[in-house]
Amino acid sequence: MGLCLPCMGGAVKDVVETPDPEIKRRQLAEAAEKRQMEASSRGIKNAYSVEQKKKKQEEIEKRIAASGSGGEGGLRWQVG
Questions:
Q1: How far apart are CA 42 and CA 33, in angstroms?
Q2: Which InterPro entries match (predicted)?
């Protein structure tokens, strides 16, 4: 009984002050970024090569989109 009373010796030292809302917000943002980085690299041994492959694929897609002739592809179907 009475475990929450401040008159207990050392109880004031055990109280944890909550940080400013700005500091708390920054810490939460940093933790979220860290979790995203860990999740994105989970199961990938070489994350750098994966990023390079993604960039290369995007570049190829941009080239194809830029060189496309009015939505008409290079393949034609012949029925007959």
A1: 14
A2: SVIP (IPR031632), SVIP_metazoa (IPR055366)
Say yes or no to pLDDT of 73 above 80.
no
Which residues, 6 or more positions from 41, have their beta carbon under 8 angstroms from its beta carbon? 47
Q: How many CB atoms lie within 10 A of CB 57?
A: 10
Give the Cα separation of 74 and 17 in Å (integer).
67
Positive or negative: CA dihedral 55, 57, 61, 67: positive
DSSP SS3 for 47: helix
Select from 33, 31, 15 the least CA-distant residue to 23. 31
pLDDT given at position 24: 93
Mean pLDDT, the chain, whole residue set: 79
